[in-house]
Amino acid sequence: LNRRLVPALPRSEKTQISRPRKNSCENSMNEIIRHDSGRGMPVDLPASSARKLAFFRSKIETNQRGESSISADFAPSDDERRGLARRDERLAGWLAPAGERAVLPSISSLMQSLHHRGGDEESREVLQRIWASDLADLPLFAVERACADFRQGRAGDGKWLPTQAEVRRVALGHVEPFRKEHSAVRAVLSAQMVEKPRDQAERKRVA
């Protein structure tokens, strides 16, 4: 029998045909949500999604009236926008103020672990309430991580109790990356997508 031979595809082409490319940003966002601890503890954005978010943010333009826009050529897709919207919701929850009651256990644990200069048990309880009031406006994860840093010697001298101002400074260090990310996500989501005219050279490049 005569059989018509079909040339074999190179391995790279086979891979491209059998494994259609998926949206990396959407997949990363879904991965984050699946691994959310449920305790208000932030999950870092995967590197691939962080790079994509930075790209979107860099393409936003702001006019003299303070209105922001992004070219349709560089704007996130519908799937990417949905992923970013879910990330925005998560970040808003993680960054919300904890309240006095929520931060009290971490403060109590820190005070029991390190020495404090003077004072009896009654004064310690008063001090705990003062600290809780002073740190209540911070996100819970930041207070928990800052207190753990002092207990475990990553901050302070590992012996003496820090001041609440020192705890706040360390806590804000944990907050800052997520606040920056939240600002970038909201900037991308709020930017108006616009179609911009292209010159002939640009049309050829994009095509």
Précis, in short:
Helix content is 59%, strand content 5%.
Write structural notes for this entry.
This protein has 207 residues and is mainly α. It has helices spanning 11-18, 24-34, 47-58, 78-94, 100-113, 121-135, 140-151, 164-190, 200-206, and strands at 60-62, 68-71, 192-194. It has a 3-stranded mixed β-sheet. The model is unreliable at 11-22 and 32-38 (pLDDT under 50). Helix content is 59%, strand content 5%. It is elongated. Helix 3 packs across helix 8 and helix 5 packs parallel to helix 7 (140-151).
- Please tell me what the overall shape is: elongated
Number of DSSP-assigned strands = 3
- The value of Rg in angstroms is 25 Å
Q: Which residue ranges are poorly predicted, with pLDDT under 50 across at least 5 consecutive positions?
A: 11-22, 32-38
Strand order of the largest sheet: 1-2-3
What is the element string, with H for helices and E for strands? HHHEEHHHHHEH
User: Tell me about the biggest sheet?
Assistant: 3 strands, mixed
Could you tell me the strand content as a percent range? Answer: under 5%
Percentage of helical residues? 55-70%
Report the total helices.
9
Structural class: mainly alpha
Distance from first to last alpha carbon: 45 Å
Look at the structure and give the mean pLDDT. 82
